[in-house]
């Protein structure tokens, strides 16, 4: 079995020596080294931002801004991290965010006020996650295909609901949540939700049997099954979890943008996957951390922020973003291999 | 409609008659030409009176945002107004291959005229050529084909003019203000139209040496991206005098970011002409003071042109016997003064 697992690890040869399944403690230790190197990258970015635009970058408002902008994709990334750790992938996250955000902002839903919008967003997210989960766990579909199908259908349905129109939110309770007046001790409510999702995600992954089962399924599904884990049910739950995160993210996006639009969540799937990978989650499953993923999101958001503050244009931004992804992964590898 | 002969036949009939009779005839048949037109006034111009039956094939991209949706609505409504027009409308698609297939189906159906808004103008040039070779004249709507051979008439918006007019509007408002600071929230940078809008804006601002464009960021025509980029722009610039936003859809997000940042020291000019923007301009209780049109009514005009083409007529109000080969719609500035006039054209 170990022989079967080792080939994909060839792409990361320094991380796992000679096909030996790494001990649990070693994994934890390496994860910490990775986290440190990510913090290093983030610190370097903060230094660059602080030097180039000291007044605008090192500012409470800017910190609030960066964290707020990171919240929506951050919540999605937490769900995505669980799915990737289990050896799966969820390409439908952006489409689910779009569908949930437009379903929750139709004229009919808005009649039910704050609760109606929140409830609808979460239920639509869970519903899509359920469909993904059933297709993958019990329908035997490959996650890539099942969620790709969901991507297409959810985007189509979102377009059908909106007819291409921007649905503006008129419920004051929802809009107020995005205003400065509702900041709690200077922390925007969106950021509080992001923080809560991160903490809960960390606890679930590291301190519960659910988390350990997720890692086990991703590491070796057959071994997990032989060890008595109901792999199918675990997979179903994981896609439900990802759907739930998308529902929450959709609500945050509604608050942030004050509207629902079928173009919402554009390319979130790639942003979330990239953040998770930068954060040290293995695409082949079996390893990954919530802290790493969240740092990945913060690195991306900080880059965007620094570029915008320095008035660099989209072309330069995209080139540099690609370069920084490569650099971040290389730095991590080096750090991980030297210890 | 059989009891009303076409204007051309009537023109022939009365061709040799006294000039006063000719004036009388056109007075009856054309709603648009006045009595004081020059001698060529018996030219057959398209008007509201039913004429020869025309089947118009319409192929557009997927209506995934407000403006494109308004394009479809405008085309359908205009065609519905004419009893002599049958509109064959295809399911919109952003996929080049699929749109080519749809247009080829319309060619095989032998529609009389095609109106095509390509998802990608350059990529669909071949199918435009194919239609023209099959003897079906093409009205190319907005996104232009690679070669004029692929269409009989092009009608579209003026992206450079949008930027120019936005720049002049802002320039006039700020011309007495020393060291005025302006920022630009552009649309999707991959598109040529974004470059043209920015170029027009920059060229207009050159006329006002006291105004400096201090920052520019590109959003993606979506509410979400508008909010995100505007929030960053506001953080980067602690004080500005004016903002030009290329698109009213992303403007919904931009306005949200402005509200969240609690800023109101500047004037904002939008682009495209969404209903929500018109309403905000009319209410006059925020930073949005004007928007520059990229009128979706061009689709209605495209139907008019296609109908005239199918009936072999010219355009009312112009002296030529044929429709023009190119029509560029004006990017009017809509502000509080004239917003009522445009309210009905605003799209959701």
In short:
By secondary structure, chain A is an all-alpha fold. Chain A has helices at 2-9, 24-52, 54-57, 60-85, 93-103, 107-110, 113-137, 143-162, 172-176, 189-207, 209-219, 221-226, 231-257, 268-278, 290-309, 314-338; strands at 167-168, 259-260. Chain B is α/β, with parallel strands linked by helices.
Average of the residue pLDDT scores of chain A: 89
Major beta sheet, strand line-up of chain B: 3-2-4-5-6-13
Overall helicity of chain B: 40-55%
List the secondary-structure elements of chain B in sequence, H or E. Answer: HHEEHEHEHEEHEHEHEHEHEHEEEH
Subcellular location (chain B): Cell envelope
Region (Disordered) (chain B): 28-51
Keywords (chain B): Signal
Signal peptide (chain B): 1-21
Describe this structure in words.
- The complex is a heterodimer of chains A (339) and B (348).
- Chain A has 339 residues and is mostly helical.
- Chain A is built from 16 helices and two strands.
- In chain A, 74% of the residues lie in helices and 1% in strands.
- A two-stranded antiparallel sheet of chain A has the order 1-2.
- Chain A is globular, with a radius of gyration of 20 Å.
- The N terminus of chain A is likely disordered.
- Chain B is an alpha/beta fold and 348 residues long.
- Helix content of chain B is 41%, strand content 18%.
- Chain B contains twelve helices and 14 strands.
- In chain B, helix 7 links the parallel strand 7 and strand 8.
- In chain B, helix 3 packs parallel to helix 11 and helix 6 packs parallel to helix 7.
- The N terminus of chain B is likely disordered.
- Chains A and B meet through helix 4, helix 13 and helix 15 of A and helix 3, strand 8, helix 8 and helix 9 of B.
């Amino acid at each position: 079995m170990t022989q079967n697992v080792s080939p994909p690890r060839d792409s990361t040869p320094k991380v796992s020596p000679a096909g030996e399944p790494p001990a649990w403690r070693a994994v934890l230790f390496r994860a910490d080294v990775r986290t440190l190197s990510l913090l290093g990258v983030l610190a370097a970015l903060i230094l660059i931002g602080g030097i180039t635009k000291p007044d605008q970058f090192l500012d409470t408002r800017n910190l609030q801004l960066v964290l707020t902008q990171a919240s929506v994709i951050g919540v999605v990334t937490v769900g995505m991290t669980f799915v990737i750790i289990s050896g799966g992938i969820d390409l439908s996250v952006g489409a689910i965010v779009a569908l949930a955000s437009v379903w929750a902002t139709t004229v009919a839903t808005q009649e039910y006020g704050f609760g109606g919008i929140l409830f609808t967003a979460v239920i639509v997210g869970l519903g899509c996650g359920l469909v993904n989960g059933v297709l993958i766990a019990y329908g035997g579909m490959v996650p890539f295909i099942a969620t790709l199908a969901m991507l297409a259908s959810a985007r189509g349905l979102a377009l059908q609901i909106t007819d291409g129109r921007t649905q503006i939110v008129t419920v004051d309770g929802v809009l107020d949540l995005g205003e400065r007046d509702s900041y709690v001790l200077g922390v925007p409510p969106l950021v509080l939700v992001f923080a809560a999702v991160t903490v809960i995600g960390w606890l679930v992954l590291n301190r519960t049997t659910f988390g350990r089962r997720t890692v086990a399924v991703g590491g070796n599904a057959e071994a997990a099954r032989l060890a008595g884990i109901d792999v199918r049910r675990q997979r179903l739950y994981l896609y439900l979890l990802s759907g739930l995160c998308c529902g929450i993210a959709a609500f945050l996006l509604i608050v942030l943008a004050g509207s629902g639009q079928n173009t919402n969540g554009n390319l979130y799937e790639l942003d979330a996957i990239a953040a998770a990978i930068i954060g040290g989650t293995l695409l082949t499953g079996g390893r990954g951390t919530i802290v790493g993923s969240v740092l990945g999101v913060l690195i991306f958001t900080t880059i965007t922020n620094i570029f915008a503050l320095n008035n660099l244009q989209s072309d330069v931004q995209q080139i540099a973003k690609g370069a920084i992804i490569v650099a971040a992964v290389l730095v991590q590898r080096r750090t991980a291999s030297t210890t | 409609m059989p009891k009303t002969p076409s204007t051309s036949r009537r023109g022939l009939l009365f061709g040799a008659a006294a000039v006063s009779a000719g004036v009388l005839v056109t007075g009856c048949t054309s709603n648009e030409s006045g009595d004081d037109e020059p001698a060529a006034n018996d030219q057959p111009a398209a008007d509201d009176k039913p004429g020869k039956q025309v089947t118009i094939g319409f192929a557009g991209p997927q209506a995934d945002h407000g403006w494109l949706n308004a394009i479809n609505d405008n085309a359908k409504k205009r065609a519905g107004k004419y009893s002599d027009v049958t509109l064959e409308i295809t399911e919109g698609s952003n996929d080049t291959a699929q749109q080519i297939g749809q247009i080829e189906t319309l060619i095989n159906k032998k529609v009389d005229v095609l109106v095509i808004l390509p998802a990608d103008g350059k990529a669909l040039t071949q199918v435009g050529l194919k239609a023209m070779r099959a003897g079906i004249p093409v009205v190319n709507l907005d996104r232009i084909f690679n070669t004029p051979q692929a269409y009989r008439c092009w009608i579209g918006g003026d992206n450079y003019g949008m930027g120019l007019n936005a720049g002049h509007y802002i320039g006039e408002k700020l011309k007495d203000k020393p060291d005025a600071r302006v920022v630009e929230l552009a649309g999707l940078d991959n598109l040529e139209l974004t470059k043209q809008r920015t170029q027009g804006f920059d060229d207009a601002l050159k006329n006002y040496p006291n105004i400096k464009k201090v920052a520019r960021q590109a959003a993606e025509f979506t509410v979400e991206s508008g909010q995100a980029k505007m929030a960053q722009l506001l953080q980067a610039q602690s004080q500005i005098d004016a903002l030009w936003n290329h698109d009213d859809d992303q403007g919904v997000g931009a306005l949200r970011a402005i509200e969240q940042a609690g800023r109101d020291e500047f004037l904002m000019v939008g682009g495209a002409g969404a209903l929500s923007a018109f309403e905000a301009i009319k209410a006059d209780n925020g930073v949005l003071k004007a928007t520059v049109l990229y009128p979706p009514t061009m689709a209605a005009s495209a139907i008019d042109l296609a109908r005239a083409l199918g009936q072999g007529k010219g355009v009312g109000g112009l002296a030529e016997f044929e429709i023009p080969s190119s029509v560029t719609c004006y990017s009017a500035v809509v502000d509080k003064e004239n917003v009522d006039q445009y309210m009905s054209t605003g799209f959701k």
